[in-house]
Amino acid sequence: MLIDTHCHFPHEKYDQELDQIIKDSQNNDVKKLIVIGTSIENSKKTLEVVNKYNNLFATIGVYPHEDKNLSLSDIQKELENLYRKNKSKIVGIGECGIDLGNWEDGRNPDEQVELFKLQTGFAIEHDLPLVLHNRNGDKYIEEIFSKYAVFKGNKLRGVAHCYVGNWNFAKYLIDFGFYISFSGIITFPKVSSDLIDTIKKIPKERILVETDSPYLAPQKYRGQINYPKYVKIVAEAVAQIRNASYDEIAQITYKNAHNLFNIKYD
Ligand SMILES: [Zn+2]
Q1: pLDDT above 90 (res 154)
Q2: Which pLDDT belongs to residue 147?
Q3: Is 65 annotated for ligand binding?
Q4: 229-266: string of b/e by CB count within 10 Å (b at 16+)?
Q5: Which portions of this protein are annotated as coiled-coil regions (predicted)?
Q6: How far is ligand 1, taken at its centre, from the CA of residue 243, in Å?
Q7: Is position 266 within any domain?
Q8: What is the CATH number of the domain that holds 149?
Q9: pTM, whole model, 2 decimals?
């Protein structure tokens, strides 16, 4: 069995009913889905969906370039409000982090740091894992994490989602208590040797798999809509790279996801 630890619902890219997508996932061994919020509005929609299904869970959060019209204190209030009302379904904070890929129309790095600090603080205060989005933001993240390691007795934990970096930064995150999640990118023919090296070296207790659907379909479906059921392809790729069996990777990543997101194991 598998968990897709990172997908986006509802999404205008989907041409099928959510019911069907969720049913398809279950028929393909993907038992549970973690649906990721990207803005306050999107987090609300995400919660509406997950509240209808026993096997779906949500994270709430604001992507580095979303909700530019809201003040930080508004964002804080909205997150508090959503969390208070939906505690049993919210299993993490994010996706949030640093994205220096293209910020001309988004937040500049300083603004991103402030938004990320807010959510890091929120995660640690409520003892929720952080779903980390990182594009070229290693040095900012290290700086923020060094200040937020422990707060009121809670230790910051989380997952580096859709990891494509090198082993050095992965090792830093793992030592810090993070999990590393891989997506369909690892099935692309031009996947970097650094990333392959990282996949091989990670302790198996820290690996997660995800689709980031509807984005980033694996090679076999590249350019098409991605679905949570394809997380199986990601798990198969991890298994192949690590010279492990699919069953072993499925089993350990299923367990890891339950551990990190504090979901009842069944
Ligand atoms: Zn995402």
Answers
A1: no
A2: 85
A3: no
A4: bbbbbbbbbbbebbeeebeebbebbbebbbbbbeeeee
A5: none
A6: 28
A7: no
A8: 3.20.20.140
A9: 0.95
